[in-house]
Specification:
The chain is α+β, with helices and mostly antiparallel strands and about 400 residues long. It has twelve helices and 14 strands.
Length: about 400
């Protein structure tokens, strides 16, 4: 079965705290009739720090969509390769062993996708398949895992690289004064995350067994972008925080179809869109708040980093030592639609340490280009992951 290996995560070096966010709101929107409500909502997000790709002075300017998208492309090309290399090392794979690259992002646009640039500049095979996902928002992390699961299930010896690049700060719109927009200014952060879903033998991580999608009917306008001359304008309906009452039953159903009880799993890696999402999941799934500690830590330290949330939370589980072999878990991303993308799997401890190839893998890598798998693991601290591929 496909194994989701340890992600690599990097965040930009520029940091904004909750106190700084609140001060900016007070100064920038001093005359806003609902300013007390906005300040209270930002305080209640639980977000203490966020990382942004530009200094705050640059972030607050709006040079236009053309310039912002140029920044998105330049920063992605500067920062993604190093994170890709660490994810491959975590999976004990060489880049020429990757058969599909799934690229997810909802904060900038490139065509050809960054997948083409990665193949051309990082030495991936020219027949590597490409799957860019651009319009699923925060749910796209879960979607990427599920499509990788499907691909490796169809081609059991294949390997899939997932790349999530989210620069939410590039979407700041100074003229959007709705409460939902002002709340989002204090909620979202920037991050890059990469992970490998590998087939064949070996690999420590989540052995994926089942996945599913669920769309809540007639909720398309609850989370959306308005595309205007000035770029993407994020629209957030006030009903969004209550969506777990509609999505939790889908998680229970997916687990039930697999013969599992979603309330009795050993680990949960879920999208942390906000504190109420996690609080409601505790209630509807009847699990203790501690079961969502990794997702909550991501929210507190990095904010809502869109499709990267589940990979950051999973990396925290790895950093904490993982769980026992065979432990059952749930991975779920939530986003516009309203959509849930969920996966079930068991923790597996298998294969050699990173940098020590399995015999079959070493033989395959030698056949491809004579290059041994990369070495080195570890979580990237704030500010790391900048620069070209080593």
């Amino acid at each position: 079965m496909p194994t989701l290996c340890r992600p690599a995560v990097a965040v930009p070096e520029h940091v904004i705290t909750r106190e700084e966010t609140l001060d900016l709101a007070r100064v920038t929107h001093a005359d806003h009739p609902q300013l007390p409500l906005v300040l209270r909502l930002i305080e209640n997000t639980g977000v203490l720090t966020r990382h942004i790709v530009q200094p705050i002075e640059e972030t607050l300017r709006h040079p236009g969509l053309t310039r912002r998208n140029a920044v998105y492309e330049a920063e992605a090309k500067a920062r993604v390769p190093a994170v890709v290399s660490r994810a491959l090392a975590n999976a004990n794979l060489d880049r020429r062993e990757i058969d599909l690259i799934v690229y997810v992002s909802c904060t900038g646009f490139m065509m050809p996708s960054l997948t083409a640039w990665l193949i051309n500049t990082m030495g991936f095979r020219s027949d590597t398949r490409q799957l860019p996902i651009a319009q699923l928002g925060c749910a796209a992390g879960g979607t990427a895992v599920n499509r990788a699961h499907d691909f490796v299930s169809a081609y059991p010896e294949s390997n899939v690289l997932i790349v999530s690049c989210e620069f939410c700060s590039l979407l700041y719109q100074p003229t959007d004064l709705g409460v939902g927009s002002l709340l989002s200014n204090g909620l979202f952060g920037d991050a890059i995350s990469c992970a490998v879903v590998r087939g064949g033998e070996g690999g420590t991580g989540v052995r994926l067994e089942r996945n599913g999608s669920h769309l809540v009917p007639d909720t398309e306008d609850w989370i959306s972008y308005a595309v205007r001359e000035t770029g993407f304008h994020f629209l957030l309906d006030k009903r969004v925080p209550g969506t777990m009452s509609m999505l939790a039953p889908a998680l229970l159903t997916l687990a039930g179809e697999h013969g599992w009880n979603a309330s009795e799993l050993d680990f949960y890696i879920v999208h942390a869109g906000g504190p109420r999402i996690l609080d409601d999941l505790c209630r509807f799934l009847e699990v203790e708040p501690a079961m969502f500690r990794y997702s909550r830590a991501t929210l507190t330290e990095r904010g809502n980093i869109a499709s990267s949330v589940i990979f950051d939370a999973l990396d925290r589980l790895f950093e904490d030592g993982g769980v026992e072999d065979g432990a059952r878990g749930l991975i779920a991303g939530f986003g516009p639609g309203i959509t849930a993308e969920s996966a079930l799997g068991r923790w597996t401890v298998g294969g050699p340490a990173p940098g020590e190839a399995l015999p079959a893998q070493a033989e395959r890598a030698g056949r491809v280009n004579g290059t041994p798998p990369g070495k080195g693991v570890g979580r990237t601290p704030a500010g790391a992951g900048v620069g070209a591929d080593p």
